[in-house]
Write a structure and sequence with these properties.
- The protein is α/β, with parallel strands linked by helices.
- It folds into two domains: 194 residues, Rossmann fold, CATH 3.40.50.2000; 168 residues, Glycogen Phosphorylase B (Rossmann fold), CATH 3.40.50.
- Helix content is 40%, strand content 16%.
- The strands form two sheets. The chain has a seven-stranded parallel beta sheet with strand order 3-2-1-4-5-6-7, with helices on both faces. Strands 10-9-8-11-12-13 form a six-stranded parallel beta sheet, sandwiched between helices.
- Strand 4, helix 3 and strand 5 form a beta-alpha-beta unit.
- The chain is elongated, with a radius of gyration of 21 Å.
């Protein structure tokens, strides 16, 4: 099988290179095309052992003239590849990559799959009304549709009229992001939580990640227990978060790289990231790999991956008092929940996730 990826967001992602490298280990022959707005991203995050092409074919004005993205990008891809070297096309976003994939598929008579991400579901579909007809056509013509969570799948199915939803549901699969197996090295369940209970927050200090909600929830929980906030990240709300820290709270700023993030999670007892919008939420999976139970936003990307209470609980975005109550509740049966976190994180390592992608690819070809 020869696979052609269209991946507009490769330069800013750590997930895509890991996916492409894991697929290469399965023996899949791949070519990655990265349409860009600027040349400064050329060569960033190139997956090892995978043929990758960058080119500036996009413009900032394409928000208004969206179809021009495909008009400029298709000839470039055709100059580097063709139908004889492609069995299947995988678009990694609905709008930009999906529009290009559909144009290629029509010209080459090849099937394509499309993956939907946060920007597709929560931003472009919500605010760019004029693009909805194009998005519906991309979904109709796709041989397969991939969503990162059951919640996103249900949202996507409703993109089409009710009479077409069963057809879309039949070709719509849930395949989450994968985890580097190294996260699980020497992982052991926690026998007990600390005193005080250290509540971790990992993410951007911005309105979408809601760090002030997490901090206030910890302080509310502290009224009936002993909880402290333990955060990492930077952003426009960092100064406000620092102003509201109480004795025992900590904010470490930016932490990068798996070894340093592993150390951060090891120093947390729980993780609370009550984002207002989340495609998947890798921080939850990373924390679980170190035996840390998690609180995640209800109705967002991570919700629905596990039964309620299995590895943690969903919480309502913006409801700080509910988040505080869940912080106390999640401590019940802490050791067993910590063990389940590690066990379930092991189900998400890339070798297992790529098996699900391979099944989707074969299904699309059939």
């Amino acid at each position: 099988m020869k696979l052609l990826h269209i991946c507009r967001n490769l330069a800013g992602s750590t997930v895509f290179p890991q996916l492409f490298e894991a697929l290469a280990e399965k023996g899949l022959e791949q070519t990655v095309f990265v349409p860009e707005v600027t040349d400064r991203n050329r060569g960033k995050n190139v997956p090892r052992g995978v043929c990758t092409h960058y080119a500036v074919t996009l413009r900032t004005t394409d928000t208004l003239f969206f179809r021009q993205k495909a008009v400029r990008t298709v000839p470039w891809i055709e100059s580097e590849a063709g139908p004889e070297g492609t069995d299947l096309i995988h678009a990694h976003t609905l709008f930009t990559d999906g529009s290009i994939a559909r144009a290629l598929a029509r010209r080459w008579k090849r099937p394509y799959l499309v993956t939907l991400r946060y920007s597709d579901v929560a931003v472009i579909w919500k605010y760019e009304w004029h693009l909805r007809p194009m998005a519906r056509d991309i979904l109709r013509e796709a041989a397969g549709v991939i969503c990162l969570s059951p919640v996103v799948r249900e949202q996507v199915i409703r993109f089409l009229p009710e009479r077409e939803q069963a057809t879309l549901a039949a070709k719509c699969r849930v395949i989450p992001n994968g985890l580097d197996p190294a996260w699980l090295h020497h992982a052991r369940p926690r026998q007990n939580h600390g005193d005080p209970v250290r509540v971790g927050f990992a993410g951007g200090m911005n309105r979408r990640k809601r760090p002030l909600d997490a901090l206030e929830a910890v302080h509310l929980a502290n009224e009936r227990g002993h909880f402290v906030f333990c955060g990492c990240g930077t952003g426009p709300l960092e100064a406000k978060v620092r102003e509201r820290l109480q004795p025992g709270d900590r904010l470490y700023g930016r932490i990068e790289g798996r070894p340093d993030m592993t150390a951060f999670y090891e120093n947390c007892d729980l993780l609370l990231v009550p984002s207002s919008a989340e495609t998947f939420g890798m921080v939850y999976l990373e924390a679980m790999s170190r035996g840390v139970p998690v609180l995640y936003t209800r109705g967002q990307g991570f919700d629905g991956q596990f039964p309620e209470g299995e590895v943690g609980y969903s919480v309502a975005c913006g409801n700080r008092r509910e988040q505080a109550e869940r912080l106390r509740q999640i401590l019940e049966g802490y050791e067993e929940r910590s063990r389940r976190c590690i066990d379930h994180a092991g189900e998400y390592i890339w070798p297992r996730i790529t098996e699900r992608f391979m099944s989707a690819y074969l299904g699309a070809l059939e």
